[in-house]
Structure formats: C-alpha cells, structure tokens
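Materials and Methods. Structural model of Large ribosomal subunit protein bL35. The 65-residue sequence of Large ribosomal subunit protein bL35 from Limosilactobacillus fermentum was retrieved and submitted for structure prediction as follows.
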Amino acid sequence: MPKMKTKSAAAKRFKRTAKGGFKSGNSFTSHRFHGKTKKQRRQLRGLSMMDKSNVKRYKKMIPAK
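The predicted structure was written out as tokens:
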C-alpha cells in the first residue's frame, strides 16, 4: 500500500501539537489595522488552536508525526 502524502499547503499553514491538536495563524492580520481596536490587534498575535470539529479533517491532510 502506498504511503499517504502530506498536503503541502496544510503543512505550511498548520502545526500539530503534542496532544494531537492543531495550531494556526489568525486571519485578519495583514492590513487595515486602523479599523481594529488595540484589544483585537493584541489578541490576533501569535497562533490559535483549531476547533475540535475540524481536527479529523486536518489529521488526514497531515498524516505523519
């Protein structure tokens, strides 16, 4: 049986955690910050956890690890 290939687009965007979850960067962070509050901008920094409802789909995209 052939190996499962990793979706390269998913590998670039998502990181797998030790417990099997996924982290990703936030959207709405590239421009137009004048329309966002300081709190919004602060909370959009860094990575955020993906919702549990999508984890099964992401595990198929990134089978290794």
